[in-house]
């Protein structure tokens, strides 16, 4: 599916070049195919081509001679090699966080790949080795941590819900993600591919396990990582999920309310609190315990994933920071 010429002309100038997640994959392929009919030089297709199936079909079907990738390679610089080998790549959300940040004068950064633009921060990683690791919570932070440590450890993810994704699955039901219209498919694809990457590396998954009711599930492990997200205060959690499930987040009223940056920031930070500290007591005193993502401190998705990357790749540093944070709270 491609965007129509009429729709294209109605787009804001920025979205004519860099279509965000609400637009279909391969947004401009119809244009590429039309140009290809008129010229004798190679044609390059662009615009939401991070899905290997869509990109491959575009070339095979003759719509374009080759594809150009921008945001896709910011999310996962190793995308070409992974696709060639059949491995799961870290999928771009098409949230335009990278583009909007650069336009405002900031350095480049990425929601799902915190190392983008901060490569020196992630040089010389030293992840744990030879451990049995349990990650509680299969949201973006937990799955990111699992994918980063799986090569050198035996890793299991425990998730209370029947599927992975955590609260991230509800993000697509809201009217906005950052500065663009949210789309459920983008978040669902990201979670599915990240889980596939974990499974390909041998990560085990146990869904439907609530460690508050089954704390013995944590017993076999050397390291327990709580990636259990944040909990809404004032009983807002149930109300919020029901409203989003009912589609009210994308209603006219919902869009008007979420247009306020102040309200959105309050929902991220003020209305929620991390759950990790409440769960520490479930682990044994001789186990390494790590709290990451919203479970450590309620915030935005990039903060949660960034924390997961740093905890996975530099565990000693993160452990010292965790100890200092606990000391400060006391």
Strands of the widest sheet, in order across it, are: 7-4-3-8-11
Question: Tally the helices: what do you get?
Answer: 16
For the residues shown, what is the average pLDDT? 90
Major sheet description: 5 strands, parallel
Describe the structure.
By secondary structure, this protein is of the alpha/beta class. It is 42% helix and 11% strand. It contains 16 helices and eleven strands. Strands 7-4-3-8-11 form a five-stranded parallel beta sheet. A two-stranded parallel ribbon has the order 1-2. Helix 4 links the parallel strand 1 and strand 2 (66-67). Helix 8 (140-149) packs parallel to helix 10. The longest helix is centred in the middle third of the chain and has 17 residues, at 184-200. Mean pLDDT is 90; it is low at 320-330.
Brief account:
By secondary structure, the chain is of the alpha/beta class. The chain has helices at 5-10, 13-17, 29-38, 52-60, 71-75, 79-85, 97-103, 140-149, 168-171, 184-200, 236-245, 252-258, 261-270, 276-279, 301-313, 315-329; strands at 44-45, 66-67, 132-136, 154-159, 176-177, 180-181, 204-207, 223-226, 230-232, 272-274, 288-291.
Keywords:
alpha/beta, 5-stranded parallel β-sheet, two-stranded parallel sheet, disordered C terminus
Helices and strands in order, then pairings?
Elements: H1 5-10, H2 13-17, H3 29-38, E1 44-45, H4 52-60, E2 66-67, H5 71-75, H6 79-85, H7 97-103, E3 132-136, H8 140-149, E4 154-159, H9 168-171, E5 176-177, E6 180-181, H10 184-200, E7 204-207, E8 223-226, E9 230-232, H11 236-245, H12 252-258, H13 261-270, E10 272-274, H14 276-279, E11 288-291, H15 301-313, H16 315-329
Parallel strand pairs: 1-2, 3-4, 3-8, 4-7, 8-11
Antiparallel strand pairs: 5-6, 9-10
């Amino acid at each position: 599916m491609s965007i129509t010429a009429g729709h294209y002309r109605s787009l804001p100038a920025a979205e004519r070049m860099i279509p965000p997640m609400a637009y279909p994959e391969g947004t401009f392929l119809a244009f590429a195919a039309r140009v290809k009919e008129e010229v004798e030089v190679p044609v390059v297709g662009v615009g939401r081509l991070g899905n290997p199936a869509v990109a491959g079909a575009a070339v095979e079907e003759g719509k374009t001679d080759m594809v150009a990738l921008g945001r896709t390679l910011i999310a996962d610089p190793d995308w070409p090699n992974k696709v060639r080998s059949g491995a799961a790549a870290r999928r771009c959300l098409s949230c335009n966080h990278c583009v909007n940040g650069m336009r405002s004068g900031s350095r480049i950064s990425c929601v799902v790949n915190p190392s983008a633009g901060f490569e020196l921060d992630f040089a010389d990683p030293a992840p744990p080795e030879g451990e049995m690791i349990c990650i509680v919570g299969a949201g973006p932070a937990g799955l990111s941590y699992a994918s980063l440590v799986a090569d050198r450890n035996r890793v299991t993810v425990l998730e209370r819900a029947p599927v992975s994704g955590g609260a991230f699955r509800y993000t697509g039901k809201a009217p906005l993600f950052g500065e663009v219209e949210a789309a459920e498919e983008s978040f669902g694809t990201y979670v599915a591919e990240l889980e596939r990457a974990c499974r390909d590396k041998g990560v085990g998954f146990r869904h439907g396990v609530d460690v508050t009711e089954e704390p013995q599930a944590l017993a076999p492990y050397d390291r327990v990582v709580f990636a259990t997200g944040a909990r809404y205060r004032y009983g807002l959690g149930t109300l919020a999920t029901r409203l989003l499930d009912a589609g009210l987040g994308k209603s006219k009223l919902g869009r008007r309310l979420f247009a306020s940056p102040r309200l959105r920031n309050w929902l991220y930070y003020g209305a929620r609190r991390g759950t990790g500290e409440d769960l520490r007591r479930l682990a044994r005193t001789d186990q390494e315990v790590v709290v990451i993502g919203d479970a450590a401190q309620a915030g935005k998705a990039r903060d949660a994933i960034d924390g997961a990357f740093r905890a996975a790749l530099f565990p000693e540093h993160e452990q010292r920071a965790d100890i200092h944070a606990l000391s400060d709270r006391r």
